[in-house]
Amino acid sequence: MNMKIKKIFNNNVALTEDLNQTEMVVMGKGLSFQKKVGDEIDTEKIEKTFITPSESFADKLSELFDDIPYDIMALSKDIIDMANRELHTELNDSLYLSLSDHIHFAVTRSKNGLPIKNALMWEVQKFYKAEHRVARKALDMIKVRTGVSLPEDEAASIALHLFNARQDSSGMEETMAMTNIVSSVTSIVKYHYGIAFEEESMNYSRFITHLRYFAYRMLRGELNNDHNDALYKQVKMQYPKAYDCAKKVQAYLNNQYNVEMTKDELAYFMIHIHRVSSREKS
């Protein structure tokens, strides 16, 4: 493949054009070292290509290479390649940006003794088992390549990045349906309690995140089938008003989408509804 350099971002990444005038951002260690615009790229050095990228994407990729060591970018590529195989999918290219940035930040924090907890860790383990299993493998790869053992919370964070990269490829119809579900359920909770949400709060952010993931799984027929009676009864007893609200959500979903929520799903809804309605500070 004949590829000429149109723009050099740094020693490891360049914007190229082939004989069909197809633009690609290519990455590989040292592939543009001592090169200039118009030179041909040694294709054997190419490790990853981003075909017909937007100008903003190319700029973000360039900025990332300026801020993040190449070894981390290469590690992210290997993790994504592994995830594509394990999840039998093709993850969105935007994941190379977000995952590299996250891993670099997480490794740096860990070295400085500043780990960050993931408030959704248990839910990710429970509802996104495939992504979490892959993320656990990613932690092993990170340990081997960087010498840093990241905490289990980071497996949940990486799993969410993987999930979002799958979600990015959703069709417009599905995206609109998800948006409608989030909006409608949020309104049910808002009017049930007669409150205005503190949209900058952590509890609101957690609630919307849970709701988006629920809507995504619901539309794809991937809702959790477990019926954890013990958890359900405990939460129902502890948060009776949240239970009443959750039942309204359940009725809405049943009427509009013919979906029956399991007791597990209802229990987690109650927990998030209670948190967001009580406006607890986190």
UniProtKB/TrEMBL annotation:
Q: Which GO terms describe its molecular function?
A: RNA binding
Gene Ontology annotations of biological process type: regulation of DNA-templated transcription
Gene3D superfamilies named in the record: CAT RNA-binding domain, PRD domain
The residue ranges of the PRD domain are 67-172, 173-282
InterPro entries found in the cross-reference section? BglG_antiterminators (IPR050661), CAT_RNA-bd_dom (IPR004341), CAT_RNA-bd_dom_sf (IPR036650), PRD (IPR011608), PRD_sf (IPR036634)
UniProt cross-references to Pfam families, sorted A to Z:
CAT_RBD (PF03123), PRD (PF00874)
| Record's keyword terms, sorted | Repeat
Question: SUPFAM superfamilies from the entry?
Answer: PTS-regulatory domain, PRD (SSF63520), SacY-like RNA-binding domain (SSF50151)
Name under which the protein is recorded: BglG family transcriptional antiterminator
